[in-house]
Amino acid sequence: MSHETIFTMEATPIKFGSGAVDEAGWELQRLGVTRAFLVTDPGVVAAGHAERVQRIIEAEGIEVVVYDQARVEPTLESLEHAVAAAREAKPDGFVSVGGGSSIDTAKVSNLVLSHPAPVMAYVNAPVGEGRKPPSPLMPHLAIPTTSGSGSEATTVAVLDLPELKVKSGISHRYLRASQAIVDPELTRTLPAEVIASAGLDVVCHAAESYLAIPFDSRPRPESPGDRPPYQGSNPVADVWSAKALEFGGRYLRRAVADPDDIEARGAMMLSASLAGVGFGSAGVHIPHACAYPIAGLKHSYQPPGYPDDHPFVPHGHSVIVTAPAAFRFTYEGAPERHDHVATLLAGEPVSGIDALPDQLRSLMRDVGAPSGVAELGYTEDDVPALVDGALKQQRLLKVAPRQPDERDLGHIITASMHNW
Q1: What is the 3-class SS of the chain, one letter each residue?
Q2: Averaged over 306-316, what is the pLDDT?
Q3: What's the average model confidence in pLDDT over 114-142?
Q4: How far is CA 393 from CA 4, 94, 172, in A?
Q5: CA 138, 139, 142 angle in degrees (round to 5)?
Q6: How confident is the model at residue 251 (pLDDT cuts 50, 70, 90)?
Q7: What share of the chain in percent tops pLDDT 70?
Q8: Residue 291 in this model has a pLDDT that exceeds 90
Q9: Which among 206, 309, 195, 215 has a CA at the least distance from the CA of 262?
Q10: CA-atom Rg of the chain in angstroms
Q11: pLDDT level of residue 213 (50, 70, 90 thresholds)
Q12: % helix / strand / coil in the chain, to the nearest 5?
């Protein structure tokens, strides 16, 4: 078996800074869009951000059709609803204004309009068919209003499949937005709980990316088209992920504590994009593989600070609860890199098998995160089902620095029931 010798690095063009959103119309005009389908959610509409972006775009002579029903934590049904609305609107470009859910909804709508097929045809195997789009999509301008998913910079869209009791995703390089505008001022309206969950997602994205297997330890693909989006850690992804970890350790507590701390909230928005570029190349693994069934198996948790129209587990919470135990398990696969991640979060040298888990637990407690899987509505009786859901995420697990089997995942989830 010959090993991989190539890695790829692609990044969404990002315009960052206070007031950057005022250039949304100019960017869409530059992309050649004349009729835009703007995807957002009711919370963003209530904050006034969607209307503001609509006015800015229309001032450039571009038609805008607003779709304001994006669901926080999208389901197959909600995505199909958005696709139907987009099909009726007949746009030649997309705009997303909101968190990762709105951005992902725009990505999937763009995909299905550009290359008509059922949504499940594009969902990653074995849950879906894993079909690949044959050519690029319509232009997409992504404008995040949170500081977590990094979806504006990634090739991934995530969806909940309640009937299967699992979350899955669509992953392809063509899903990446054409342009992103990251404006820290848009985060002033976010509740502390949302900032906390989103920021913990950033930290996990960056840590998992930095700790992924080296890209050159994978088998060489038979053709360039078979090279996976998640390729393993590499020198370029490491730079983006390391800076995101540094910012997470330095700024997340401040960003949660004070909505007017634009330096901290801006740094977390930037770190979300940085981590998105990093994990978009290197990948994520055990915490995210466990997060999908944690978010999908039960729908009983009502998160503080989020919309109360339906119970759900925010993505950042579903990821972070297993991260301490997961990284304790993977430590032996790359001790020095685990120590470096812990040091970046701590802001000072720390080392040892418990260094990174301890840093994560400290950060979780300081920003008010759930204490573990049990707080999200699960008991140890649910562990087998959670393990089964995690095992379905093989495209993620295969880049872990230490490969977990069914028993290992059971131990990780059981240990994560209570982190303190």
Answers
A1: CCECCCCCCCCCCEEECCCHHHHHHHHHHHCCCCEEEEECCHHHHHHCHHHHHHHHHHCCCCEEEEECCCCCCCEHHHHHHHHHHHHHHCCCEEEEEECHHHHHHHHHHHHHHHCCCCHHHHCCCCCCCCCCCCCCCCCEEEEECCCCCCHHHCCEEEEEECCCCEEEEEECHHHCCCEEEECHHHHCCCCHHHHHHHHHHHHHHHHHHHHCCEHHHCECCCCHHHCCCCCCECHHHHHHHHHHHHHHHHHHHHHHHCCCCHHHHHHHHHHHHHHHHHHHHHCCCHHHHHHHHHHHCCCCCCCCCCCCCCCCCCHHHHHHCCHHHHHHHHHHHCHHHHHHHHHHHHCCCCCCCCHHHHHHHHHHHHCCCCCCHHHHCCCHHHHHHHHHHHHCCHHHHCCCCCCCCHHHHHHHHHHCCCCC
A2: 89
A3: 95
A4: 22, 29, 16
A5: 130
A6: very high
A7: 100
A8: yes
A9: 195
A10: 20
A11: very high
A12: 55, 10, 35
- CA 166 → CA 71, 243, 377, 386, distances in Å? 17, 32, 15, 9
Rounded to a whole number of angstroms, the distance between the first and last alpha carbons of the chain is 45
| 264 has a pLDDT exceeding 90 | yes
pLDDT, position 147: 82
pLDDT at 55: 98
Q: How far is CA 309 from CA 71, 104, 171, in A?
A: 10, 20, 28
Say if residue 154's pLDDT is above 90. Answer: no
Lowest mean pLDDT among 4-13, 233-242, 409-418: 4-13
Helix (H, G, I), strand (E, B) or coil at 321: coil
The DSSP letter of residue 21 is G
Q: Would you say 286 and 404 are in contact if contact means Cβ atoms under 8 Å apart?
A: yes
Q: Are the C-beta atoms of residues 4 and 220 closer than 8 Å to each other?
A: yes
User: Structure pTM?
Assistant: 0.91
Residue 38: which H helix or E strand, with range? strand 35-39
